[in-house]
Amino acid sequence: MDIKEMLEKLREKINFHSYKYYVLNAPVISDYEYDQLFDELKSLEAQHPELITPDSPTQRVGNELTGGFKEVAHSVPMLSLENTYSSEEIYEFDKRVKKESEDSPEYVVELKIDGTAVALTYRNGKLFQGSTRGNGNTGDDITHNVRTIKSVPLVLQKTNDESLLNIEVRGEVFLPKKSFEQCNIEREKAGEPLFANPRNAAAGSLKNLNPEVTSKRGLDIFIHTSPYPIKNTHYEALKTMEKIGFKINPETKVCKNIEEVVDFCNSWEDRRKNLPYEVDGMVIKVNSFDMQRKLGATGKNPKWAIAYKFPATEVTTILEDILLQVGRTGIITPVARLKPILLAGSTISRATLHNADEISRKDIRIGDTVFIKKGGEVIPEVIKPVTENRTGKEKIFKMPDNCPVCKEKLVKYENEVAWRCENLQCPAQTQRRIEYFVSKNAMSIEDLGEKVVSRLMDAGFIKNAVDIYKLKDRRAELIELDRMGEKSVDNLLAEIEKSKNIELEHLIFALGIRHIGVHTAKLLAKSFTGIDELKSATLEELTEIREIGEIVAKAIIDFFKSEENCEIIEELRKAGVKLYRDKKVSIGEKFTNKTFVLTGTLAGFTRDEVTEIIEKEGGRVSSSVSAKTNFVLAGEATGSKYDKAKKLGVKIITEEEFREMIR
User: Fold this and answer.
1) Number of domains in the chain
2) Phi/psi at 10 (nearest 5 deg)?
3) Same domain assignment for residues 449 and 551
4) Rounded-to-integer distance, Cα 243 and Cα 241, Å
5) Would 581 be classed as within a structural domain?
6) Would you place residue 191 in the very low, low, confident or very high pLDDT band (cuts 50, 70, 90)?
7) Long-range contacts of range 125-134, CB-CB < 8 Å, 24 or more positions apart?
8) Which of 281, 347, 312 is nearest to 113 (CA)?
9) Looking at the annotation, which residues are catalytic?
10) What is the pTM of this model?
11) Exposed, middle or buried: residue 236 (CB in 10 Å: 0-12, 13-18, 19+)?
């Protein structure tokens, strides 16, 4: 046997034992024997470095990523699941499935792992690429980091079905509870900030630019689906994926009816505490792939699956103080400072109190023992005080007369619950406005986070959003700032420069016009050539745009009446920020007031491309068919939307007919 063949046999043997240990949790050799095999492989590869292959078990940790993460387009969108919070909602889901499919479905129920969604692609049986979910259509290429996860196979197990060697699977990367605790112990020793919970730790580890750091975190993975059906049912697909090397959650059950589903979900509410990883609910899926295809999906969620979230966990702790936060619009929000306590997998030290009226209504006092919960397992909220525990030392909260930051008088308007600071020069408001301006949906300057903005304001470098674009002239001074450094400053300045050419919709959102969210900013960007044209738009012109009503239109007009706002726009212009789009988008032409529904797979377009074309021509795309639908654009493998369109007599067009319409 020559050395090349010896290395191949040894790698194959180690991959098999890794599969038995990390995936099936059923080792057939001791740890010592496994280590001996691994050491033998390392030794032989050291002697023959020219024979080292990328998929060798010794090559799990790659080099540090110096250029950041590349974007990856998902071949099939990674949709999110609709959430439910009660048994009644699960029964409603079952009714919808039966109504659309006209069959009695069988379900598969899986634990909902509290981690980070990833996609893994294999070519010729070898790991080719790993990516994050991202926005559902595109994610980040994290191949270097997923390679470090020992339960991710670098090479698939041998199979007679060659189609399984070129496969994409999706799953949840998570940090086991023990690994999370150990990770935070080490971070505390190193003087680094602790991770809030295992989910954040997993996400942060996958986005670390140094795979060697990721490899030490102890990440794990459960694979839960493939975007391309590989068997007749979801459960058969899971078992097939397990056979070729993927780790599948063992606590998965096939349920014959919805009653079994509800019983199984309820049985895990208390048992989940004993699991070695965090679980925040259950995932319920129709088992039959044929039925899944018939049911289809909305724009965001598959209709054949839902997530059942466990009831919010409640705990008690001490409310040590009530702090006041000043928002970018001047609204004052009271926040509870709590004695730190672990709740639903994360340490909670603050929680929302909503407003002063709510504090009074619930009779919440400083020093109280209070119940807190996570609404939908996300946002901590103070529910009520435990009045029986009161000692008489508790203090009744009273909203102060003046802003906690700028000391200007607070005001409260009739029929409003919010107290406001109306001083536009209030430093807290200024900081929030800057944070909003640089946020992801706005100018997207990632390196300008809350702490950096605060540091720059305290040092006198920025007083408003426009000052961000003057930082390039103060590079030397910035480098001298605490925790900045030459590389950090250069990265920040490069991001700021890049933001000058941001798309118009992002700039409109960044201006912070009242009532203008991401969607409305897109509508305005498609309707006007730039900020100057938007600034001069009349009420009539604005309300002619679909989905923009009088309230939003007046808010836009009022914004541009402000001299201060107009000055900011002129300063942005001087700084070189692009205030226009290169070409005005055509609106209200071919498809004015026409509604389209898309079904099936299109050969020459992505769904996003079709949607953009329709919207540019004045139409809209809906997720469901009704009597008001004008056209159903049908591709290959259509679902229930096609059948419903035929029943309602809605015009069904092919991809070629659509091309003729837009030609």
Assistant:
1) 6
2) -65, -45
3) no
4) 5
5) no
6) low
7) 125/155, 125/156, 125/165, 126/54, 126/55, 126/154, 126/155, 126/156, 127/55, 127/152, 127/153, 127/154, 127/155, 129/72, 131/72, 131/74, 132/206, 132/207, 133/78, 134/71, 134/72, 134/74, 134/78
8) 281
9) 112
10) 0.52
11) middle
pLDDT tens for residues 613-626?
A: 887 787 878 777 88
Alpha helices, DSSP H, located in 156-244: 177-189, 198-206, 211-215, 234-243
Q: Strands 346-352, 331-343: parallel, antiparallel or unpaired by DSSP? A: antiparallel
DSSP letters spanning 364-404: -EET-EEEEEEETTTEEEEEEE-GGG--S--EE----SB-T
Q: Which among 425, 489, 486 has a CA at the least distance from the CA of 455? A: 489
Q: Which residues contact 165 (CB under 8 A, 6 or more apart)?
A: 122, 123, 124, 125, 156, 159
More confident residue, 391 or 33: 391
Question: Cβ(372)–Cβ(383) under 8 Å?
Answer: yes
Residue 504 CB-half CA count within 13 A = 21
With H, G, I as helix, E, B as strand and everything else as coil, classify residue 580: strand
| CATH code where residue 340 lies | 2.40.50.140
Structure tokens at 544: 């002619």
Q: Which of these three, 388, 404, 420, is where a domain ends?
A: 420
Distance, in Å, from the CA atom of 418 to the CA atom of 145, rounded to the nearest integer, reads 46
Residue 601, beta-bridge partner list: 636
Domain interval for residue 471: 427-499
Reported as a pLDDT band with limits 50, 70 and 90, residue 164 is very high
**Whether residue 327 sits in one domain with residue 304:** no
Q: Could you give the C-alpha distances from 295 to 97, 116, 256, 452, 655, in angstroms and in order?
A: 7, 26, 18, 47, 21
Residue type, 93: F
Q: How far is it, in rounded angstroms, from Cα 630 to Cα 632?
A: 7
- Distance (Å, whole) CA 641 – CA 658: 17
Q: Look up residue 36 and give its two tokens.
A: 């001996």
